[in-house]
Amino acid sequence: MAAVMDPIPGTSDLWEPEVLDWVQIEDCARKVLSLYGFNELRTPIFERTELFVRGIGDQTEVVQKEMYTFEDRGHRSLTLRPEGTAGVMRAILHQGVSEGEEKRVFYMGPMFRGEKPAAGRKRQFHQIGVEAVGTTEPGRDAESIAMLVHFLDDIGISDARILLNTRGTAADREAVADALYEYFKPRVEGMCPDCQRRLGTNVWRMMDCKQEACQPVIHSAPRIVDLVGEESRSFFMEVCKFLDELGLEYELDPRLVRGLDYYEHTVFEVVHSGLGAQDAIAGGGRYKMQLPGQNRPIEGVGWAVGIERLLLARESLGIRAEATTPANVYVAVMGAAAAKAGLELVQELRRHDIKALSEVGRRSLKAQMRTANKLGAPLALILGDSELSEGTVVCKNMATSEQETVKRTDIAQYLLSKILSI
Ligand code: HAM
Predict the structure, then answer these.
(1) How far is the CA of 419 from the centre of ligand 1 (A)?
(2) What integer is the mean pLDDT of 351-371?
(3) Mind spelling out the 3-state secondary structure of 183-220?
């Protein structure tokens, strides 16, 4: 039996220094996304279940198998958000958006899916996502992908592959499903049980099944881009032309269908070789979502990256945020009066943006110096009765053991210049 104090499987406690990588990635996202005119939006982590069922699609695996759904005390069915797009669309519609108006938002935070935990697959995972709504031009799809590449470059991931495909419009969906059904039906016997089930429920998903047994059949399946209508094909060609124009490399992946049913036209995924089976670090595309109580759908284009997977990709490249020392200055004190003065001194230093810690107990100077060393503080200050009466402080360079006596009133400025030169 799992111990009560263990984190729930598929969730993690995050400690420094790992948290520093998260902060670096989040800061970088804020910087890059704002260059493209995106503003941050924070939506609740739980919403009405119906929002996700309608938004994501009731036939999707996320809705059918993976949602954390519960009834609250008012007998409302609520769900922890399994992804960000549906909630963001709700928020935008709630605030109001006029026809033809463009809105660009980004979000970051936890998402929840009841999947089997594995490397790079968590039950609580974290996404950074973007949505540009009110845009129907293929140039926006290319710009969205370019922004993703820009962000990945800035966090040090420049060797990821972009996989691209189209799902066509809603009008194409039935014809494509019919053609795929015709193709798969006579061949389904040798395929996995999931695919046998999908044939009757969601034939599209048979295209991206990862089971070994299904590969030869899928490999020879008709390409979706050849099954969709003229409008969809020319939209897709336009997206490709824009990407070519921007000099972005991508691979056409006829099997890419994505697991969420709101997509229309462009779909893409970004994969990285540093991950195992769960190699998608990002996914996205163009979508059209019909939400409950709305008389017209909302459409846009966007993507989301999984932060845990970005970390795995960075780790495989040897990229880590540098751990910082908890203190640049350690204040060692001797005697009760010095302990009080030491506390006052560290407060003053912190007000000058100097990271400082002080001794408050009565340990020997030797023990206090050991602590300064352990913390990795490059400088230590020593404060005793004689320094107090002379209005001075002794400053020790921990690496060289050199000591200098500095006037108490000058100490903050002195340390600031010292820290800069270390
Ligand atoms: P998604 O492909 O389901 O798309 O998720 C996006 C990314 O989230 C994945 O590429 C992966 O990095 C990460 N991710 C998904 N599930 C897990 C998991 N169980 N554990 C760890 N990481 C995971 C979406 O969610 C769409 N809302 C993206 C989008 C935005 N499309 C248009 N706009």
Answers:
(1) 43
(2) 94
(3) HHHHHHHHCCHHHHHHHHHCHHHHHHCCCHHHHHHHHC
**Does the predicted TM-score (pTM) go above 0.90?**
yes
Q: Ligand 1 centroid to 82 CA: how many Å?
A: 9
CA distances to 9, 164, 215, 269 from 161, rounded to whole Å, are 30, 10, 21, 8
pLDDT at 1: 60
Q: For the residues 410-421, what does the mean pLDDT come to?
A: 91
Is residue 8 scored above 80 in pLDDT?
A: yes
Cα first-last separation, the chain: 51
Of 14, 63, 68, 83, which is best to mutate to test ligand 1, by the most ligand atoms within 8 angstroms of its C-beta?
Answer: 83
